[in-house]
TrEMBL record, chain A:
One GO cellular component term: ATP-binding cassette (ABC) transporter complex
Claim: Nucleotide-binding is one of the keywords in the record: yes
Organism: Chelatococcus daeguensis
Lineage: Bacteria, Pseudomonadati, Pseudomonadota, Alphaproteobacteria, Hyphomicrobiales
Family the entry assigns: Belongs to the ABC transporter superfamily.
GO molecular function terms listed in the Swiss-Prot or TrEMBL record: ATP binding; ATP hydrolysis activity; transmembrane transporter activity
Designated name of the protein: Fe3+/spermidine/putrescine ABC transporter ATP-binding protein
Automatic annotation (TrEMBL), chain B:
Superkingdom field: Bacteria
Keyword DNA-binding assigned: no
UniProt lineage: Bacteria, Pseudomonadati, Pseudomonadota, Alphaproteobacteria, Hyphomicrobiales
Record's protein name: ABC transporter permease
Gene3D superfamilies assigned: MetI-like
UniProt keyword list: Cell membrane, Membrane, Transmembrane, Transmembrane helix, Transport
All residue ranges annotated as the ABC transmembrane type-1 domain in the record: 66-270
Chief place of localization: membrane
Annotated SUPFAM superfamilies: MetI-like
Entry-linked Pfam families: BPD_transp_1
Spans through the membrane: 12-38, 65-89, 101-119, 150-169, 205-227, 247-270
GO cellular component, one term: plasma membrane
Membrane-topology annotation of the record: Multi-pass membrane protein
Amino acid sequence: MGFLTLEGVSKVYGGLAAVRDVDLAVARGEFVSLLGPSGCGKTTTLQMIAGLVEPTAGRIGLDGRDITREKPNRRGLGVVFQSYALFPHMTVAENVAFGLEMRKVPRAERDRRVAEMLALVHLANLAERYPRQLSGGQRQRVAIARALVIAPPVLLLDEPLSNLDAKLREEMQFELRRIQRSVGTTTIMVTHDQAEALSISDRVVVMEAGRMTQIDAPYRLYEQPATAFISTFVGKMNRLAGVWGDGGVAVAGTVLASAPADVAAGTAVTAWIRPEKLHLRPMGEGRLAGRVASRFFLGGHWLLTVGTEAGDILVSVPNTGEEPAREGEPIGLDWEPASLRVEAGAGAAA
Amino acid sequence: MNRSVATPLMLASPGAVLFAGLVIVPLVLTLILSFLAYDHGTGIKDSWTLAHYMHVLSDSYYLGIFWRTLRLAALTTLICALIGAPEAYILSRMRSPWRSVFLLVIIGPLLVSVVVRAFGWSMLLGSTGLVNAALAAVGLGPVRLLYTETAIVIALVHVMLPFMVIPVWTALQKLDPMVEAAAWTLGASRFSALRRVVMPQVSMGLLSGSLIVFGLSASAFAIPGLLGGRRLKMAATLVYDEYMHELNWPLGAAIAILVLVANLVIMLAYNRAVEARARRMLG
């Protein structure tokens, strides 16, 4: 069974459900991300685990103990807030020592553990600085050190990287994963950034309108999104509306794929395909003809928009050192049949 | 004088003239007046003397009034801090419609003249007033409140409270509410979080509020005048009496200057402490 468990947890604010009937089991040492757009209830879920928000219904368990009604200061979880919430009137060392002080850890041991933790986050030389004298990335590491020094059973991260610029954010993702690996603390991170969730988590939990709609490893989440929303929220996705007819799915008159067996003839279906699963072919070859409408160079790859009878399709072409088709050039598109997913229904817009 | 030097002087001159005319000149005149000799028969004379200062500083009557002024101002400041800081904390934790309502309730009394409020208190605290009627009803008998130091302090606290609440509230507004939550998650009880994390950060507001309350209380005139009565004088009412009843203007001026100096010394010392703290906290 899970180390940290949520069973049927809900939170209702004045008749409005922010979190609805959430079930989750996190294993010891696991890194789990709660991913979703703003207002999906992911931060509320994290705050309920931290004890800052009381659930309306449900049960939260930690290592077999029911902590649903326990005060935050009794839970002993490490929390890193989005704003970092450092104590501005204390030095870095005093900030980190605060949790140990509250636990009445003797002075000598406290100093030793603070020094160890500051070394782990590479801040040993800034111990006597005040938070206002630090950069964003340094503050974030102080917040992590402060949360980890109390050796919490679970570390909760609320959008820890959202206040950092893009370059630093990428560095801190590796840093965060390195620290988490070396300490081995069970970690739950809230984020709205799908790339961040995919890159550092063992499992990703996608939340939509207060519900958890998919809990999976990053790769499976990307390859087999459970809902239309997830397929567009995580990574880029082409969505083609079509009809199931004789011999397969037809999009704008072209047969693209064989349809799933359980779909009746003549029903509307939606076909999904990732941009990187499409290959460029010379004109006349491939399964679908089109014309390059626009072309973006993104360093590692090119992103082409190809106008076809089925609508505009995004195609991602790896940068192999050769320029792909230019704007206005007619081309063909091909793909492995398995990479096209077909679903019944018009495919609710995400 | 070239243009670049003249411009700032010109720009500063209206303010300088106003300040000189309304503050410097009256103060200098009062200072000069305090050194002039006075005779009960003939009035102010044209000779210099230190007699008024000697008289005030050697007479236990005056020293007693000074001591009472300091004591009551300090007591008012302390009570305002004890009531005002929690009040500001509760106010900052209120939700949007109630916060504005209660902020108005706190600031509202400032819209009423101090004299009116002092008369209000004298009606409440009088021997047949509401407070004594209530005390009598529960069998505690009439208590003498009006024309006592207690009455002065009660009314001063009432008048001064907004000057304490507002700076503390402003300091609390700048505080990230998550900082307190962070302290809880690190194992701090509500009380330790308040003491170790919230209080140090609002102490600046508390200290500047204290400075305002102390300064205003020590120089208060209407409240001690109306609630302290003829006998229970404070510094400002004493000066008034010397001028208007004894007609001994130089003595009144000497008292005023002494009160000013005492107030300045206390407030500057206090301000130094506040600034030293601010430097440490804000860098």
